[in-house]
Protein backbone atom coordinates (compact mmCIF):
# COMPACT_ATOMS: atom_id res chain seq x y z
CA UNK A 1 0.00 0.00 0.00
CA UNK A 2 2.66 2.48 1.06
CA UNK A 3 4.97 1.41 -1.74
CA UNK A 4 2.13 1.83 -4.23
CA UNK A 5 1.36 5.30 -2.88
CA UNK A 6 5.04 6.23 -3.02
CA UNK A 7 5.21 5.11 -6.64
CA UNK A 8 2.07 7.13 -7.33
CA UNK A 9 3.65 10.22 -5.76
CA UNK A 10 6.85 9.85 -7.72
CA UNK A 11 5.00 9.41 -11.03
CA UNK A 12 2.74 12.36 -10.21
CA UNK A 13 5.68 14.64 -9.37
CA UNK A 14 7.55 13.56 -12.49
CA UNK A 15 4.43 14.27 -14.53
CA UNK A 16 3.99 17.69 -12.95
CA UNK A 17 7.59 18.67 -13.62
CA UNK A 18 7.48 17.30 -17.16
CA UNK A 19 4.23 19.07 -18.02
CA UNK A 20 5.48 22.37 -16.55
CA UNK A 21 8.72 22.04 -18.48
CA UNK A 22 7.05 21.32 -21.82
CA UNK A 23 4.51 24.08 -21.15
CA UNK A 24 7.17 26.72 -20.64
CA UNK A 25 9.37 25.45 -23.46
CA UNK A 26 6.52 25.45 -25.96
CA UNK A 27 6.70 27.55 -29.10
CA UNK A 28 2.98 27.15 -29.69
CA UNK A 29 0.88 29.14 -27.24
CA UNK A 30 -2.18 26.96 -27.67
CA UNK A 31 -0.17 23.90 -26.72
CA UNK A 32 1.23 25.76 -23.73
CA UNK A 33 -2.29 26.59 -22.58
CA UNK A 34 -3.52 23.00 -22.91
CA UNK A 35 -0.47 21.80 -21.01
CA UNK A 36 -1.19 24.36 -18.32
CA UNK A 37 -4.76 23.06 -17.99
CA UNK A 38 -3.30 19.57 -17.58
CA UNK A 39 -0.86 20.95 -15.02
CA UNK A 40 -3.79 22.28 -12.99
CA UNK A 41 -5.44 18.85 -13.02
CA UNK A 42 -2.29 17.08 -11.82
CA UNK A 43 -1.83 19.78 -9.20
CA UNK A 44 -5.30 19.12 -7.79
CA UNK A 45 -4.37 15.44 -7.43
CA UNK A 46 -1.14 16.47 -5.69
CA UNK A 47 -3.13 18.58 -3.20
CA UNK A 48 -5.24 15.51 -2.49
CA UNK A 49 -2.10 13.55 -1.69
CA UNK A 50 -1.09 16.34 0.69
CA UNK A 51 -4.34 15.92 2.63
CA UNK A 52 -5.66 19.29 1.49
CA UNK A 53 -9.09 18.64 -0.06
CA UNK A 54 -10.03 22.31 0.36
CA UNK A 55 -7.15 23.37 -1.83
CA UNK A 56 -7.92 20.59 -4.29
CA UNK A 57 -11.50 21.89 -4.56
CA UNK A 58 -10.27 25.42 -5.21
CA UNK A 59 -7.73 24.18 -7.74
CA UNK A 60 -10.38 22.09 -9.50
CA UNK A 61 -12.79 25.01 -9.75
CA UNK A 62 -10.08 27.46 -10.82
CA UNK A 63 -8.02 25.21 -13.03
CA UNK A 64 -10.89 23.54 -14.83
CA UNK A 65 -13.48 26.29 -14.84
CA UNK A 66 -11.75 29.64 -14.91
CA UNK A 67 -8.11 29.68 -15.95
CA UNK A 68 -8.58 27.46 -18.98
CA UNK A 69 -11.41 29.51 -20.45
CA UNK A 70 -9.64 32.75 -19.56
CA UNK A 71 -6.41 31.71 -21.30
CA UNK A 72 -8.20 30.36 -24.37
CA UNK A 73 -10.22 33.54 -24.77
CA UNK A 74 -7.11 35.69 -24.24
CA UNK A 75 -5.32 33.79 -27.00
CA UNK A 76 -8.29 34.34 -29.26
CA UNK A 77 -8.32 38.05 -28.45
CA UNK A 78 -4.59 38.34 -29.19
CA UNK A 79 -5.08 36.54 -32.48
CA UNK A 80 -7.93 38.88 -33.33
CA UNK A 81 -5.88 41.97 -32.51
CA UNK A 82 -2.83 40.87 -34.46
CA UNK A 83 -4.62 39.42 -37.48
CA UNK A 84 -7.64 41.67 -37.78
CA UNK A 85 -8.57 40.27 -41.19
CA UNK A 86 -9.01 36.72 -40.06
CA UNK A 87 -12.31 35.23 -41.01
CA UNK A 88 -11.98 36.44 -44.60
CA UNK A 89 -11.24 33.34 -46.58
CA UNK A 90 -8.03 33.84 -48.46
CA UNK A 91 -4.33 34.15 -47.87
CA UNK A 92 -3.26 35.26 -44.45
CA UNK A 93 -2.94 39.03 -44.12
CA UNK A 94 0.49 40.62 -44.38
CA UNK A 95 2.16 40.88 -41.02
CA UNK A 96 1.63 44.04 -39.07
CA UNK A 97 4.51 46.37 -40.02
CA UNK A 98 4.88 47.52 -36.44
CA UNK A 99 5.13 43.98 -35.18
CA UNK A 100 7.91 43.22 -37.62
CA UNK A 101 9.97 46.39 -37.18
CA UNK A 102 10.13 46.06 -33.44
CA UNK A 103 13.38 44.64 -34.38
CA UNK A 104 16.38 42.85 -33.01
CA UNK A 105 16.17 39.37 -31.62
CA UNK A 106 12.48 39.68 -31.02
CA UNK A 107 10.65 36.42 -31.34
CA UNK A 108 7.37 37.82 -32.60
CA UNK A 109 9.03 39.80 -35.35
CA UNK A 110 10.83 36.80 -36.71
CA UNK A 111 7.60 34.88 -36.86
CA UNK A 112 5.91 37.74 -38.64
CA UNK A 113 8.54 37.84 -41.35
CA UNK A 114 8.52 34.10 -41.83
CA UNK A 115 5.49 33.27 -43.95
CA UNK A 116 5.51 29.64 -42.88
CA UNK A 117 5.35 30.45 -39.19
CA UNK A 118 1.59 30.62 -39.19
CA UNK A 119 -0.21 32.82 -36.80
CA UNK A 120 1.73 35.69 -35.27
CA UNK A 121 -0.26 35.73 -32.10
CA UNK A 122 -0.21 32.05 -31.32
CA UNK A 123 3.37 31.05 -31.78
CA UNK A 124 6.66 32.42 -30.62
CA UNK A 125 10.14 31.46 -31.62
CA UNK A 126 12.34 29.52 -29.24
CA UNK A 127 14.46 31.71 -27.04
CA UNK A 128 17.96 32.42 -28.35
CA UNK A 129 20.69 30.37 -26.73
CA UNK A 130 22.53 33.37 -25.29
CA UNK A 131 22.30 33.43 -21.52
CA UNK A 132 20.94 29.92 -21.26
CA UNK A 133 23.43 28.67 -18.73
CA UNK A 134 23.21 31.66 -16.45
CA UNK A 135 19.42 31.24 -16.25
CA UNK A 136 19.84 27.53 -15.50
CA UNK A 137 22.45 28.36 -12.87
CA UNK A 138 20.27 30.96 -11.15
CA UNK A 139 17.11 28.87 -10.99
CA UNK A 140 18.89 25.59 -10.33
CA UNK A 141 20.98 27.13 -7.58
CA UNK A 142 17.90 28.57 -5.98
CA UNK A 143 16.19 25.18 -6.13
CA UNK A 144 19.16 23.48 -4.49
CA UNK A 145 19.21 26.12 -1.77
CA UNK A 146 15.49 25.59 -1.13
CA UNK A 147 15.90 21.83 -1.03
CA UNK A 148 18.82 22.08 1.37
CA UNK A 149 16.72 24.26 3.67
CA UNK A 150 13.83 21.82 3.48
CA UNK A 151 16.05 18.84 4.18
CA UNK A 152 17.69 20.31 7.25
CA UNK A 153 14.67 22.00 8.78
CA UNK A 154 13.13 20.08 11.65
CA UNK A 155 9.39 20.22 11.94
CA UNK A 156 7.36 20.87 15.03
CA UNK A 157 3.64 20.33 15.36
CA UNK A 158 2.82 23.63 13.60
CA UNK A 159 -0.30 25.53 14.49
CA UNK A 160 -2.66 22.56 14.24
CA UNK A 161 -2.94 21.99 18.05
CA UNK A 162 -3.64 25.70 18.63
CA UNK A 163 -6.42 25.70 16.04
CA UNK A 164 -7.88 22.46 17.41
CA UNK A 165 -7.90 23.91 20.92
CA UNK A 166 -9.95 26.94 19.88
CA UNK A 167 -12.41 25.30 17.52
CA UNK A 168 -15.25 25.60 20.04
CA UNK A 169 -15.13 29.41 20.03
CA UNK A 170 -14.86 29.68 16.24
CA UNK A 171 -18.51 29.05 15.44
CA UNK A 172 -17.77 26.46 12.75
CA UNK A 173 -16.60 22.85 12.71
CA UNK A 174 -14.06 23.01 9.90
CA UNK A 175 -10.54 24.12 10.75
CA UNK A 176 -9.74 25.99 7.56
CA UNK A 177 -12.99 27.94 7.60
CA UNK A 178 -12.33 28.83 11.24
CA UNK A 179 -8.87 30.13 10.34
CA UNK A 180 -10.08 31.98 7.27
CA UNK A 181 -13.11 33.68 8.76
CA UNK A 182 -12.35 33.94 12.44
CA UNK A 183 -8.77 33.45 13.58
CA UNK A 184 -7.14 35.18 10.64
CA UNK A 185 -10.05 37.15 9.24
CA UNK A 186 -7.66 39.93 8.22
CA UNK A 187 -6.16 37.72 5.54
CA UNK A 188 -9.53 36.99 4.06
CA UNK A 189 -10.60 40.64 4.12
CA UNK A 190 -7.41 41.63 2.31
CA UNK A 191 -7.89 38.74 -0.10
CA UNK A 192 -11.34 40.06 -0.99
CA UNK A 193 -9.84 43.53 -1.40
CA UNK A 194 -7.24 42.04 -3.73
CA UNK A 195 -9.91 40.36 -5.86
CA UNK A 196 -11.80 43.65 -5.97
CA UNK A 197 -8.64 45.51 -6.95
CA UNK A 198 -7.97 43.12 -9.83
CA UNK A 199 -11.52 43.62 -11.07
CA UNK A 200 -11.23 47.40 -10.82
CA UNK A 201 -7.90 47.22 -12.64
CA UNK A 202 -9.49 45.34 -15.53
CA UNK A 203 -12.33 47.87 -15.64
CA UNK A 204 -9.87 50.75 -15.72
CA UNK A 205 -8.47 49.43 -19.00
CA UNK A 206 -11.58 50.48 -20.85
CA UNK A 207 -14.66 49.01 -22.39
CA UNK A 208 -14.86 45.35 -23.21
CA UNK A 209 -15.26 44.11 -26.72
CA UNK A 210 -17.48 41.25 -27.65
CA UNK A 211 -15.59 37.98 -27.48
CA UNK A 212 -14.09 37.18 -30.84
CA UNK A 213 -15.86 34.10 -32.05
CA UNK A 214 -17.48 32.25 -34.83
CA UNK A 215 -20.47 30.99 -32.90
CA UNK A 216 -21.20 27.37 -33.55
CA UNK A 217 -24.73 27.04 -34.84
CA UNK A 218 -26.96 24.33 -33.53
CA UNK A 219 -28.74 23.27 -30.40
CA UNK A 220 -25.82 21.56 -28.65
CA UNK A 221 -24.26 24.56 -26.93
CA UNK A 222 -27.44 26.24 -25.64
CA UNK A 223 -28.83 22.86 -24.62
CA UNK A 224 -25.71 21.90 -22.71
CA UNK A 225 -25.61 25.24 -20.97
CA UNK A 226 -29.27 24.98 -20.03
CA UNK A 227 -28.58 21.63 -18.39
CA UNK A 228 -25.29 22.58 -16.76
CA UNK A 229 -26.10 25.98 -15.30
CA UNK A 230 -28.62 24.82 -12.69
CA UNK A 231 -26.32 21.99 -11.60
CA UNK A 232 -23.40 24.40 -11.29
CA UNK A 233 -25.44 26.83 -9.22
CA UNK A 234 -26.66 24.09 -6.89
CA UNK A 235 -23.08 22.81 -6.52
CA UNK A 236 -21.83 26.31 -5.72
CA UNK A 237 -24.44 26.87 -3.03
CA UNK A 238 -23.76 23.40 -1.65
CA UNK A 239 -20.04 24.16 -1.35
CA UNK A 240 -20.82 27.41 0.43
CA UNK A 241 -23.02 25.55 2.88
CA UNK A 242 -20.57 22.68 3.33
CA UNK A 243 -17.75 25.08 4.26
CA UNK A 244 -18.86 25.26 7.88
CA UNK A 245 -18.23 21.59 8.57
CA UNK A 246 -16.37 20.06 5.63
CA UNK A 247 -14.09 21.11 2.77
CA UNK A 248 -15.69 23.94 0.86
CA UNK A 249 -16.34 27.57 1.55
CA UNK A 250 -16.72 31.00 0.06
CA UNK A 251 -13.94 30.90 -2.45
CA UNK A 252 -14.66 27.46 -3.85
CA UNK A 253 -18.34 28.35 -4.12
CA UNK A 254 -17.49 31.68 -5.72
CA UNK A 255 -15.22 29.99 -8.24
CA UNK A 256 -17.90 27.45 -9.20
CA UNK A 257 -20.53 30.17 -9.57
CA UNK A 258 -18.04 32.32 -11.49
CA UNK A 259 -17.43 29.41 -13.85
CA UNK A 260 -21.20 29.15 -14.29
CA UNK A 261 -21.25 32.84 -15.20
CA UNK A 262 -18.40 32.32 -17.66
CA UNK A 263 -20.32 29.44 -19.21
CA UNK A 264 -23.33 31.72 -19.55
CA UNK A 265 -21.35 34.47 -21.25
CA UNK A 266 -19.73 31.93 -23.56
CA UNK A 267 -23.11 30.62 -24.62
CA UNK A 268 -24.26 33.98 -25.95
CA UNK A 269 -23.56 34.13 -29.64
CA UNK A 270 -22.58 37.74 -30.26
CA UNK A 271 -22.82 39.81 -27.13
CA UNK A 272 -21.89 39.62 -23.53
CA UNK A 273 -24.21 39.72 -20.56
CA UNK A 274 -24.73 43.32 -19.71
CA UNK A 275 -26.28 43.85 -16.30
CA UNK A 276 -27.08 47.23 -14.82
CA UNK A 277 -23.66 48.78 -14.04
CA UNK A 278 -24.83 50.10 -10.68
CA UNK A 279 -26.03 46.68 -9.55
CA UNK A 280 -22.82 45.14 -10.80
CA UNK A 281 -20.73 47.60 -8.80
CA UNK A 282 -22.73 46.90 -5.68
CA UNK A 283 -22.36 43.17 -6.22
CA UNK A 284 -18.62 43.33 -6.81
CA UNK A 285 -17.92 45.39 -3.70
CA UNK A 286 -20.54 43.78 -1.45
CA UNK A 287 -18.29 41.02 -0.11
CA UNK A 288 -15.44 43.26 1.05
CA UNK A 289 -17.75 46.01 2.37
CA UNK A 290 -19.98 43.61 4.28
CA UNK A 291 -16.94 41.95 5.80
CA UNK A 292 -15.46 45.30 6.80
CA UNK A 293 -18.73 46.59 8.24
CA UNK A 294 -19.28 43.48 10.35
CA UNK A 295 -15.63 43.57 11.38
CA UNK A 296 -15.99 47.15 12.59
CA UNK A 297 -19.15 46.17 14.40
CA UNK A 298 -17.11 43.44 16.10
CA UNK A 299 -14.86 46.18 17.45
CA UNK A 300 -17.75 47.48 19.55
CA UNK A 301 -19.93 44.42 20.11
CA UNK A 302 -17.37 41.66 20.13
CA UNK A 303 -13.90 41.11 21.50
CA UNK A 304 -11.94 43.09 18.89
CA UNK A 305 -11.78 44.27 15.31
CA UNK A 306 -12.73 41.51 12.85
CA UNK A 307 -13.73 39.07 15.57
CA UNK A 308 -17.19 37.83 16.31
CA UNK A 309 -19.14 37.34 19.57
CA UNK A 310 -19.08 33.66 20.32
CA UNK A 311 -22.82 32.99 20.11
CA UNK A 312 -23.22 34.99 16.88
CA UNK A 313 -20.13 33.65 15.15
CA UNK A 314 -21.84 31.04 12.98
CA UNK A 315 -24.57 33.26 11.46
CA UNK A 316 -22.09 36.11 10.95
CA UNK A 317 -19.61 33.82 9.20
CA UNK A 318 -22.39 32.49 6.99
CA UNK A 319 -23.48 36.03 6.05
CA UNK A 320 -19.92 37.11 5.29
CA UNK A 321 -19.28 33.98 3.25
CA UNK A 322 -22.44 34.52 1.23
CA UNK A 323 -21.40 38.08 0.42
CA UNK A 324 -17.86 36.99 -0.40
CA UNK A 325 -19.13 34.20 -2.68
CA UNK A 326 -21.30 36.63 -4.60
CA UNK A 327 -18.52 39.19 -5.01
CA UNK A 328 -15.89 36.65 -5.97
CA UNK A 329 -18.17 35.07 -8.57
CA UNK A 330 -19.13 38.43 -10.08
CA UNK A 331 -15.54 39.68 -10.11
CA UNK A 332 -14.29 36.53 -11.80
CA UNK A 333 -16.91 36.90 -14.52
CA UNK A 334 -16.03 40.60 -14.86
CA UNK A 335 -12.35 39.71 -15.18
CA UNK A 336 -13.23 37.14 -17.82
CA UNK A 337 -15.30 39.66 -19.79
CA UNK A 338 -12.29 41.93 -19.44
CA UNK A 339 -13.61 45.48 -19.28
CA UNK A 340 -16.31 47.90 -18.38
CA UNK A 341 -19.74 47.57 -19.82
CA UNK A 342 -20.35 49.82 -22.83
CA UNK A 343 -23.45 51.09 -21.07
CA UNK A 344 -21.34 52.85 -18.45
CA UNK A 345 -19.80 55.19 -20.95
CA UNK A 346 -23.06 55.97 -22.64
CA UNK B 1 -8.67 -3.72 -1.52
CA UNK B 2 -7.07 -0.34 -0.97
CA UNK B 3 -3.95 -1.54 -2.76
CA UNK B 4 -6.12 -2.38 -5.74
CA UNK B 5 -7.71 1.10 -5.71
CA UNK B 6 -4.33 2.85 -5.47
CA UNK B 7 -2.95 0.68 -8.26
CA UNK B 8 -5.92 1.56 -10.42
CA UNK B 9 -5.41 5.25 -9.68
CA UNK B 10 -1.74 4.91 -10.61
CA UNK B 11 -2.73 3.21 -13.83
CA UNK B 12 -5.07 6.08 -14.71
CA UNK B 13 -2.23 8.50 -13.96
CA UNK B 14 -0.02 6.61 -16.37
CA UNK B 15 -2.70 6.83 -19.06
CA UNK B 16 -2.71 10.60 -18.56
CA UNK B 17 1.05 10.70 -19.03
CA UNK B 18 0.74 8.64 -22.21
CA UNK B 19 -2.04 10.90 -23.43
CA UNK B 20 0.37 13.79 -23.16
CA UNK B 21 1.91 12.54 -26.40
CA UNK B 22 -1.21 13.74 -28.23
CA UNK B 23 -0.98 17.15 -26.57
CA UNK B 24 2.68 17.49 -27.51
CA UNK B 25 2.38 16.13 -31.03
CA UNK B 26 -1.00 17.59 -31.90
CA UNK B 27 -1.24 18.12 -34.80
CA UNK B 28 -4.47 20.08 -34.62
CA UNK B 29 -5.78 22.17 -31.76
CA UNK B 30 -8.87 19.94 -31.67
CA UNK B 31 -6.67 16.96 -30.85
CA UNK B 32 -5.02 18.85 -28.03
CA UNK B 33 -8.24 20.14 -26.55
CA UNK B 34 -9.94 16.74 -26.68
CA UNK B 35 -6.96 15.18 -24.95
CA UNK B 36 -7.30 17.72 -22.17
CA UNK B 37 -10.98 16.79 -21.87
CA UNK B 38 -10.01 13.13 -21.64
CA UNK B 39 -7.56 14.02 -18.87
CA UNK B 40 -10.45 15.61 -17.02
CA UNK B 41 -12.33 12.32 -17.12
CA UNK B 42 -9.27 10.35 -15.97
CA UNK B 43 -8.75 12.92 -13.23
CA UNK B 44 -12.28 12.37 -11.95
CA UNK B 45 -11.54 8.63 -11.85
CA UNK B 46 -8.28 9.16 -9.96
CA UNK B 47 -9.95 11.44 -7.44
CA UNK B 48 -12.76 8.99 -6.76
CA UNK B 49 -10.37 6.03 -6.42
CA UNK B 50 -8.10 7.97 -4.06
CA UNK B 51 -11.11 9.20 -2.14
CA UNK B 52 -12.12 5.65 -1.32
CA UNK B 53 -8.59 4.32 -0.87
CA UNK B 54 -7.54 7.08 1.54
CA UNK B 55 -10.97 7.35 3.13
CA UNK B 56 -11.45 11.02 2.32
CA UNK B 57 -15.13 11.44 1.39
CA UNK B 58 -14.56 15.12 0.50
CA UNK B 59 -12.78 14.00 -2.65
CA UNK B 60 -16.15 13.12 -4.14
CA UNK B 61 -16.93 16.84 -4.08
CA UNK B 62 -13.63 17.60 -5.81
CA UNK B 63 -14.46 15.03 -8.48
CA UNK B 64 -17.93 16.54 -8.85
CA UNK B 65 -16.51 20.02 -9.40
CA UNK B 66 -14.05 18.65 -11.95
CA UNK B 67 -16.71 16.74 -13.85
CA UNK B 68 -18.95 19.79 -13.85
CA UNK B 69 -16.45 22.42 -14.87
CA UNK B 70 -14.26 20.54 -17.32
CA UNK B 71 -16.83 21.51 -19.90
CA UNK B 72 -16.13 25.24 -19.52
CA UNK B 73 -12.79 25.12 -21.30
CA UNK B 74 -14.35 22.90 -23.96
CA UNK B 75 -17.14 25.42 -24.52
CA UNK B 76 -14.60 28.25 -24.73
CA UNK B 77 -12.77 26.23 -27.35
CA UNK B 78 -15.80 25.11 -29.35
CA UNK B 79 -17.10 28.65 -29.50
CA UNK B 80 -14.03 29.69 -31.38
CA UNK B 81 -13.22 26.57 -33.34
CA UNK B 82 -16.56 24.93 -33.77
CA UNK B 83 -16.55 25.42 -37.51
CA UNK B 84 -13.68 24.57 -39.83
CA UNK B 85 -11.17 27.38 -39.86
CA UNK B 86 -11.10 29.51 -42.97
CA UNK B 87 -7.98 28.94 -45.00
CA UNK B 88 -4.93 30.88 -43.92
CA UNK B 89 -5.63 31.10 -40.21
CA UNK B 90 -4.02 27.99 -38.77
CA UNK B 91 -4.13 27.59 -35.03
CA UNK B 92 -1.08 25.41 -34.77
CA UNK B 93 2.58 25.35 -35.41
CA UNK B 94 2.77 23.48 -38.64
CA UNK B 95 0.07 24.48 -41.09
CA UNK B 96 1.54 22.46 -43.95
CA UNK B 97 1.06 19.20 -42.14
CA UNK B 98 -2.57 19.87 -41.47
CA UNK B 99 -3.81 21.35 -44.73
CA UNK B 100 -4.90 18.12 -46.47
CA UNK B 101 -7.32 17.39 -43.64
CA UNK B 102 -8.46 20.94 -43.26
CA UNK B 103 -12.15 20.57 -44.14
CA UNK B 104 -12.47 18.01 -41.39
CA UNK B 105 -10.24 20.04 -39.15
CA UNK B 106 -12.01 19.17 -35.93
CA UNK B 107 -13.91 16.08 -36.92
CA UNK B 108 -14.51 15.15 -33.32
CA UNK B 109 -16.23 18.36 -32.29
CA UNK B 110 -19.80 17.70 -31.41
CA UNK B 111 -21.09 20.82 -33.13
CA UNK B 112 -20.31 19.23 -36.45
CA UNK B 113 -22.70 16.38 -36.66
CA UNK B 114 -25.83 18.34 -36.35
CA UNK C 1 17.92 13.61 7.12
CA UNK C 2 15.10 11.99 5.23
CA UNK C 3 13.56 9.51 7.62
CA UNK C 4 10.82 8.25 5.36
CA UNK C 5 9.38 9.26 2.05
CA UNK C 6 5.91 10.30 3.12
CA UNK C 7 4.22 12.93 0.94
CA UNK C 8 5.16 15.67 3.38
CA UNK C 9 8.83 14.92 2.77
CA UNK C 10 8.66 14.23 -0.94
CA UNK C 11 6.43 17.02 -2.23
CA UNK C 12 8.33 20.06 -0.89
CA UNK C 13 11.30 19.00 -3.01
CA UNK C 14 9.04 18.80 -6.03
CA UNK C 15 7.72 22.24 -5.12
CA UNK C 16 11.24 23.63 -5.04
CA UNK C 17 11.92 22.12 -8.46
CA UNK C 18 8.66 23.59 -9.83
CA UNK C 19 9.59 27.00 -8.47
CA UNK C 20 12.97 26.82 -10.20
CA UNK C 21 11.37 25.65 -13.45
CA UNK C 22 8.93 28.55 -13.38
CA UNK C 23 11.70 31.02 -12.58
CA UNK C 24 13.71 29.70 -15.48
CA UNK C 25 10.75 30.13 -17.80
CA UNK C 26 10.15 33.63 -16.49
CA UNK C 27 13.73 34.61 -17.23
CA UNK C 28 13.98 32.91 -20.58
CA UNK C 29 10.64 33.33 -22.34
CA UNK C 30 9.61 36.71 -23.69
CA UNK C 31 6.00 36.23 -24.70
CA UNK C 32 3.86 37.64 -21.92
CA UNK C 33 1.40 34.74 -21.89
CA UNK C 34 4.26 32.33 -21.27
CA UNK C 35 5.61 34.62 -18.56
CA UNK C 36 2.22 34.67 -16.86
CA UNK C 37 2.14 30.87 -17.01
CA UNK C 38 5.67 30.80 -15.59
CA UNK C 39 4.68 32.95 -12.63
CA UNK C 40 1.72 30.68 -12.01
CA UNK C 41 3.97 27.63 -12.03
CA UNK C 42 6.33 29.35 -9.58
CA UNK C 43 3.36 30.07 -7.35
CA UNK C 44 2.26 26.43 -7.53
CA UNK C 45 5.74 25.42 -6.40
CA UNK C 46 5.46 27.70 -3.39
CA UNK C 47 2.03 26.30 -2.53
CA UNK C 48 3.42 22.80 -2.80
CA UNK C 49 6.26 23.58 -0.36
CA UNK C 50 3.74 25.11 2.03
CA UNK C 51 1.23 22.27 1.89
CA UNK C 52 3.98 19.67 2.02
CA UNK C 53 5.39 21.15 5.22
CA UNK C 54 1.84 21.40 6.61
CA UNK C 55 1.27 17.69 5.94
CA UNK C 56 4.49 16.48 7.59
CA UNK C 57 4.26 14.09 10.48
CA UNK C 58 1.40 11.94 11.66
CA UNK C 59 -0.81 14.71 13.07
CA UNK C 60 -3.62 16.16 10.94
CA UNK C 61 -2.32 18.79 8.51
CA UNK C 62 -1.82 22.36 9.71
CA UNK C 63 -5.01 24.30 8.85
CA UNK C 64 -3.28 27.69 9.04
CA UNK C 65 -0.87 26.81 6.25
CA UNK C 66 -3.76 25.44 4.18
CA UNK C 67 -5.82 28.59 4.74
CA UNK C 68 -2.86 30.75 3.72
CA UNK C 69 -2.44 28.67 0.58
CA UNK C 70 -6.12 29.07 -0.25
CA UNK C 71 -5.76 32.83 0.10
CA UNK C 72 -2.68 32.63 -2.08
CA UNK C 73 -4.55 30.76 -4.81
CA UNK C 74 -7.31 33.38 -4.84
CA UNK C 75 -4.80 36.19 -5.12
CA UNK C 76 -2.88 34.30 -7.82
CA UNK C 77 -5.95 33.76 -9.99
CA UNK C 78 -7.04 37.40 -9.65
CA UNK C 79 -3.56 38.61 -10.53
CA UNK C 80 -3.43 36.21 -13.47
CA UNK C 81 -6.73 37.45 -14.83
CA UNK C 82 -5.64 41.06 -14.46
CA UNK C 83 -2.27 40.33 -16.08
CA UNK C 84 -4.05 38.72 -19.04
CA UNK C 85 -6.28 41.79 -19.37
CA UNK C 86 -3.16 43.97 -19.33
CA UNK C 87 -1.55 41.77 -21.98
CA UNK C 88 -4.55 42.15 -24.27
CA UNK C 89 -4.46 45.91 -23.68
CA UNK C 90 -0.75 46.05 -24.48
CA UNK C 91 -1.31 44.08 -27.67
CA UNK C 92 -4.11 46.44 -28.63
CA UNK C 93 -1.81 49.43 -28.14
CA UNK C 94 1.43 48.13 -29.57
CA UNK C 95 0.48 45.21 -31.79
CA UNK C 96 2.49 42.59 -29.94
CA UNK C 97 2.41 40.79 -26.63
CA UNK C 98 6.07 41.11 -25.72
CA UNK C 99 7.70 43.63 -23.44
CA UNK C 100 10.44 45.34 -25.41
CA UNK C 101 13.19 47.50 -24.00
CA UNK C 102 12.76 51.22 -24.47
CA UNK C 103 9.70 53.46 -24.33
CA UNK C 104 6.32 52.02 -25.21
CA UNK C 105 5.36 52.60 -28.82
CA UNK C 106 1.73 52.53 -29.81
CA UNK C 107 0.88 51.68 -33.37
CA UNK C 108 -1.96 54.07 -33.82
CA UNK C 109 -1.95 57.78 -33.22
CA UNK C 110 1.23 59.65 -32.47
CA UNK C 111 4.02 57.15 -32.33
CA UNK C 112 7.17 58.62 -30.82
CA UNK C 113 10.18 58.45 -33.11
CA UNK C 114 12.91 55.94 -32.52
CA UNK C 115 15.83 57.42 -30.61
From TrEMBL, chain A:
It is a multi-pass membrane protein. The chain crosses the membrane at residues 6-25, 32-50, 56-75, 133-151, 189-206, 227-244, 250-267, 279-300, 312-337. Keywords: Cell membrane, Membrane, Transmembrane, Transmembrane helix. It is found in: Cell membrane. Residues 83-119 are annotated as: Disordered. Residues 224-339 form the Na+/H+ antiporter MnhB subunit-related protein domain. Belongs to the CPA3 antiporters (TC 2.A.63) subunit B family. This is Sodium:proton antiporter. It comes from Thioalkalivibrio halophilus. Pfam families: MbhD, MnhB. The keyword Cell membrane applies. The keyword Cell membrane applies. Residues 15-79 form the MrpA C-terminal/MbhD domain. Signal peptide: none annotated. GO terms for cellular component: plasma membrane. Its main location: membrane.
From TrEMBL, chain B:
Keywords: Cell membrane, Membrane, Transmembrane, Transmembrane helix, Transport. It is found in: Cell membrane. The keyword Transmembrane helix applies. One of its GO terms (cellular component) is plasma membrane. GO terms for molecular function: sodium:proton antiporter activity. The keyword Iron does not apply. Residues 101-114 have a biased composition (Basic and acidic residues). The chain crosses the membrane at residues 35-54, 59-78. It is a multi-pass membrane protein. Residues 84-114 are annotated as: Disordered. PANTHER family: NA(+)/H(+) ANTIPORTER SUBUNIT F1 (PTHR34702), NA(+)_H(+) ANTIPORTER SUBUNIT F (PTHR34702:SF1). Belongs to the CPA3 antiporters (TC 2.A.63) subunit F family. This is Multiple resistance and pH regulation protein F.
Automatic annotation (TrEMBL), chain C:
The keyword Lyase does not apply. It is found in: Cell membrane. Its main location: membrane. Keywords: Cell membrane, Membrane, Transmembrane, Transmembrane helix. It comes from the Bacteria. The chain crosses the membrane at residues 32-55, 67-91. The keyword Cell membrane applies. It is a multi-pass membrane protein. GO terms for cellular component: plasma membrane. Belongs to the CPA3 antiporters (TC 2.A.63) subunit C family. This is Na+/H+ antiporter subunit C.
Amino acid sequence: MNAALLAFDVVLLAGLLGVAWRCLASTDLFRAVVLFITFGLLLAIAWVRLEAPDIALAEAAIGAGITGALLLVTLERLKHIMNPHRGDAGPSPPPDPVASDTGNADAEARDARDPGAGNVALSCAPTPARGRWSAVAVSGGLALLLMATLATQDHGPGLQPAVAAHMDVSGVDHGITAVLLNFRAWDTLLELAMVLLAGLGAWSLGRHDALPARPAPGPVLPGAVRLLLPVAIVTGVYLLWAGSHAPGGAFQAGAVLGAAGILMSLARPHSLPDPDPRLLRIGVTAGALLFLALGLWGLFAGPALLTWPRNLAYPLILIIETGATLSIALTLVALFVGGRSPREDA
Amino acid sequence: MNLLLVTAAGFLLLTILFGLIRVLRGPGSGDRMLTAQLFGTSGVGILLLLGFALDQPALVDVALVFALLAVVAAVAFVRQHGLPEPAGTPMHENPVEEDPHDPGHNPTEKTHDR
Amino acid sequence: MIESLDPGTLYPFGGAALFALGLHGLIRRRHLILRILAVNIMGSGVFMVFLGIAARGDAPPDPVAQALTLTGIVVAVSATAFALALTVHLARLTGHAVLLPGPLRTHRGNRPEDP
